[in-house]
Amino acid sequence: MIEIRERDLVRDISNEEEIGISKVRRIIATFLASIKNQVLLGKRVRIKGLGTFYLQQGFEGRPKIFFVDTSDEFDLDIELLRSDLVNLVSLKENLSKSIVDRVIKSFIYKLHKFDNSTETKISFKDFGFFIIKDRHIQYVPFD
């Protein structure tokens, strides 16, 4: 398994998009926090190219965030889309929608770009981690 640090991913996106590291870090952190907050409010959030996040009762009876990979998605009643989150992040971070959208698209593209033959794990502070293998993305929340 290959482990990628959040800061390495942020630095790569910053270099490619020619946007400061701190802005990229803030955008991604706010984007992931917004997903988590909206899901905890009971909404389903679909991110094109990534998948759908939703809340479901865990085995212990307490709610847990679940994720359905884009390739495994079925017709869900979607309440929020990536564009809604781009608007939300843009407002929260006081940045233009175009910058936020570029960073989010680059972030999603990077997740798909990893070598699919090897399992890759990327951890995000306060959010959880993504495991990528064989063109599938799995999300595991921190409990």
UniProtKB/TrEMBL annotation:
Keywords attached to this entry: DNA-binding
Any one Gene Ontology molecular-function term assigned to this protein's record: DNA binding
DNA-binding recorded as keyword: yes
One Pfam family linked to the record: Bac_DNA_binding
Signal sequence, renumbered to the chain: none
Claim: DNA-binding is one of the keywords in the record: yes
Gene3D superfamilies named among the record's database cross-references: IHF-like DNA-binding proteins
Family membership: Belongs to the bacterial histone-like protein family.
Protein name: Uncharacterized protein
